[in-house]
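User: Could you check the structure of this?
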Amino acid sequence: MIRRPPRSTQSRSSAASDVYKRQSAPWQTRIAAFKFPGCVGGAGVALNPPTAAQSGDPGTAVIYTLRLTNTGYVTDTFTLSVSGNAWPTNAPATVGPLNPGAAADVNITVNIPGDAPCGSSDSATITATSQRDACKSDASSLTTSTAVDYGVEVTPATAAQAGDPGTAVVYTLRVTNTGTCTDTFDLALSGNAWPVSAPASVGPLAGGAGAGVDVAVTVPADAPCGASDSVTVALTSQQGGVGDSSVLTTTVVAIYGVEVTPATAAQAGDPGTAVVYTLRVTNSGNCADTFDLALSGNAWPVSAPASVGPLAGGAGADVNVAVTVPADAPCGASDSVTVALTSQGDGLISDTASLTTEANAVYGVEVTPSEATQSGDPGTTVVYTLRVTNTGTCTDTFDLALSGNAWPVSAPAMVGPVSYT
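Assistant: Sure, the predicted structure tokens are below.
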């Protein structure tokens, strides 16, 4: 047996009347009357673009402009929410009210952390939800990444120092990675004639980090005074090819020096004659220089040039110094003179030689008269008085000898000692 449900007690005329009433009501009323559980009809929203991506440097803000459109049939206000992000992201709390079909631009700001590593990224979902109908929403996914930047800075851009010949001058440069990515920088040298040593590369350096690098320039041992040399130190990114450079200029220190040889010398000369000494004056500095000559400490006459030079660095010249032995210089007498050579480039630089001259021993005797004649009686003695003069320069004793005589002659065996006159 089939059981049928009971028939409606509503009359046909009443049911038809209800249908007519529903169909004759305005469409707005019909939509408003159409309800879902928890939702309200007539609302709608669109958020465009649905996805967007930008990049920026660490520590900066990236701004997205989204277009929010009220696609519903009623005026509405929309709540914005941010989700899924790790980086700070700012959005307005609400947009609207907007009339049906109206739209508004919405700015979303994403702050990239200052310590965000190169190539890192973060995504944020921006959701717009109708305040009239929580069931109506739309979303946009925003992906922000750190810009991949490469850069390097070398400081100082120029530097200058001076060094002695044969020494090394060291420059310390600061190499900074101005990019956002860890990088290594190749180091190249150019333009130099003098030897330069430096590392082949610097790094790896994190973005924003820096390191010191030493560049050593060797001044040649034979580099002349005032000579200079420049080297360009170039640092180039291994990743991005960008670079920076520093120009280092090294100058030879002016060195002044003089050497006089021999440092001491001694000679002897006859009274009334000149004794000549030949000194070697050498410019032991690296600059051309002239040397003033000065005499001191002497009693006997000395002649010498007032100056020697100019002499190039390392060059030398002979200089004659003449000492005159006085004609009356006694036997064994001596005199010393100090010959000083002083740099005109640096008055504190000098060298000396000490010259000692001795008078030669000169011996001589004179007997006067050279001849004499007298007469006398037989058996008597005739006396002659002779003058014996020491004509040398030394005190002396003279032996007396007799010869050629037949008659007896008496005389002293010697005369003296007799001093020089």
